Amino acid sequence: MKYKIATLPGDGIGPEIVDQAVKVLKAVGKKFGHEFDFTFAVTGAAAIEEVGEPYPEATHKICLESDAVLFGAIGDPKYDNDPSAKVRPEQGLLKMRKQLGLYANIRPVTTFPSLLHKSPLRKDIVEGADFVVVRELTGGIYFGGKGRSEDLKSAFDNCEYSTEEIERILKLAYDYAGKRNKRLTVVDKANVLATSRLWREVAQRMEKDYSDIETDYMFVDNAAMQLIQWPKKFDVMVTENMFGDILSDEASVITGSLGLLPSASVGKETSVFEPIHGSYPQAAGKDIANPVATVLSAAMLLESLDLLEEAKSVRDVVNRSLDQGIVTEDISGDHKAYKTSEVGDWLAANL
Ligand code: IPM
Ligand code: MN
What we know:
The protein is 42% helix and 20% strand.
């Protein structure tokens, strides 16, 4: 089969890590007899520099025409330190989410035995933790009406959710839970927020249709606490945009594997696959960044195309590279550190 992959390296280390995932996908194509057709396009600061816009129409068109999007990272410190900047790389990300209808962000959190010592938590707390955070990505406070009063002395950001938006994300989360350990935790703030009460109302109604799945409800503050106290209790956690932004960052660091964790943003038009870490500008161009999170994102991309055996072979080769210490300096410890490109070459050669 032939697949069209829109390839958006973005900023910082983005181009280097995406290159390695492309190498691995090409090796998958060779081994399993598929053709992956990569069309590169700009986003983020790179796109602002080139065309003055962080998510250009041309890039959007390439994404729309693709079977899946492989994404690196966006962000440049140049913009972080300039509060007056009118155009920012992050706006490109929000625009892409909205225009591609990327309504669900999925972050699987797993542990890697060789990295447990990097966790900020005790080994016995994190060892074996394995859960998925499902974050609603195109609604809520991020996209509600926002503004300032005329005298500029007050500001507002509205949080709105429709029943349809909630049903759509809950359905996806239930389907995930169904394929895993059949437990779903709905995270909200229903003791305070009207949108959360609607979430809970919808979930309580849908719960009846998924009787094989155990649903529980948790307030977001409690969930933030339980995530670090007892991460192993979670299977699939689903929540609204802003809570999910915060909880998914918290979740991603507890296993000590930040550089290895992939993510998927599932959309109506197409889906985007990217590492959960950022653009790590300090390492850009040095060939030292860990490409594994992006390579595992490519594995999620393969799954989205129903190429399950292919995805498994990518996960397997990544596990072998970790076991054999073919890793970049962030996790090599006292052993030899390999370059980004060397890790990519090894993965592609040993698939
Ligand atoms: C993320 C990021 C974005 C978000 C920013 C960069 C707009 O933090 O992908 O989680 O808040 O959604
Ligand atoms: Mn975030």
